[in-house]
Design brief:
The protein is α/β, with parallel strands linked by helices. It has one domain: 3-Layer(aba) Sandwich (Rossmann fold). It is 46% helix and 16% strand. It contains eight helices and seven strands, in the order βαβαβαβαβαβαααβ. The chain has a seven-stranded parallel sheet, sandwiched between helices. Helix 1 runs parallel beside helix 2, helix 3 runs parallel beside helix 4 and helix 4 runs parallel beside helix 5. The protein is globular, with a radius of gyration of 17 Å.
Length: 255
């Protein structure tokens, strides 16, 4: 157990499974108290048990980040429970595997509503309080597909590329008010519930093997690869860093 985030109040969106859960537990190990926001309360409660076993608090709040009122409610519940908000981790995302010509307007809008508008609405919810405090930290969980060609993932790639631009814009606008905004791009991480839902048909083993050969470290990502960078960006160790999106993908997107 560490103290890099001791008693810092952190909202994490989508911490019920996969990368979000790993980040929430990683933050708890460094002393943070958490608010878990997501649509599946049963999964949030599973994460809550793991966090509470580490001696930290975990407030469960049902939320759909595409709904502005839900995002505002997360802040209300956070302030009611903890009295402040120190860190926001924007992790919630969806990524259907659909060839570009088969993407409907409805599916396109759904992906951007969750991945881009949802992140922006969460920032709109917490920023007024962070401005009042003259301190705050926002972290965007992004994807290497924001930087490289996507495989049947065009709308996801477009949304995540926009999140990099959002990260920079917010860092520039709110840095003078004491708020840092950074992100990190995860590599392809098949050991998550969302990816596994699509199965072999969408993600054939041959594709995974070919992708692995393009990665200098010769493996795909795992959820446990990402809490370290998230803790770093959330902690005082990165106190002079803002507006950056760091690749954590085994070297797949090195310049």
């Amino acid at each position: 157990m560490g103290e890099k985030l001791k008693d810092r109040v952190t909202i994490v969106t989508g911490p019920g499974t996969g990368i979000g859960r790993a980040i929430a537990i990683g933050f708890a190990r460094e002393g943070a108290n958490l608010v878990g926001a997501g649509r599946r309360v049963d999964k949030l409660q599973e994460t809550a048990k793991e966090v509470e076993a580490l001696g930290r608090k975990f407030l469960v709040v049902r939320c759909d980040v595409t709904k502005k009122e839900d995002c505002q409610n997360i802040l209300r519940e956070t302030l009611k429970e903890f009295g402040r908000i120190d860190i926001l981790v924007n992790n919630a995302a969806i990524f259907p595997f659909t060839p570009f010509l088969d993407i409907t307007p409805e599916e396109w809008d759904s992906v951007l509503a969750t991945n881009l508008r949802g992140a922006a609405q969460m920032c709109q919810a917490v920023l007024p309080e962070m401005i009042k405090q003259r301190k705050g930290n926002i972290i965007m969980v992004n994807s290497s597909q924001a930087r490289i060609a996507a495989y049947v993932h065009t709308h996801y790639s477009a949304s995540k590329g926009a999140v990099i631009a959002l990260t920079r814009a917010l860092a520039a606008e709110y840095g003078p008010k004491g708020i840092r905004v950074n992100g990190f791009c995860c590599g392809f991480t098949p050991e998550t519930e969302q990816v596994q839902l699509y199965g072999e048909k969408a993600l054939p083993q041959s594709f995974r093997e070919a992708l692995t050969k393009t990665i200098p470290l010769r493996r795909l990502g795992r959820p446990e690869d990402y809490p370290g960078i998230a803790v770093f960006l959330a902690s005082d160790d990165s106190g002079f860093i803002t507006g950056q999106t760091i690749s954590v993908d085994g070297g797949m997107t090195m310049p």
